[in-house]
Task: structure prediction
Amino acid sequence: MMKAAHDLSVKHRVPCEVSLEARMGCSLGACMGCVVRAFGADGEEQFLRVCLDGPIMDSRKVDWNTPPSESSGRTARARSQEQQSLVYDRKTG
Ligand code: FES
Result:
């Protein structure tokens, strides 16, 4: 939905701000769990924290082609740790 709004804003050359959502581990900018891939003014790759740099962001900064789960290394790591924890819980009852 937000990507569609962004695409419309680009098509009609009007500014667009979006309010992003992300799982937040700390909400302090420390855990990097809420990172989204973005682009700076000169097109350089950036990783913005939704908790500190957002949640409202200029839609032109956001990389709409990278799923949030791939932006955050922590998310993939957390998912793996959750799976390991579930296996451990099942073994230990
Ligand atoms: S929630 Fe931890 S860095 Fe954003």
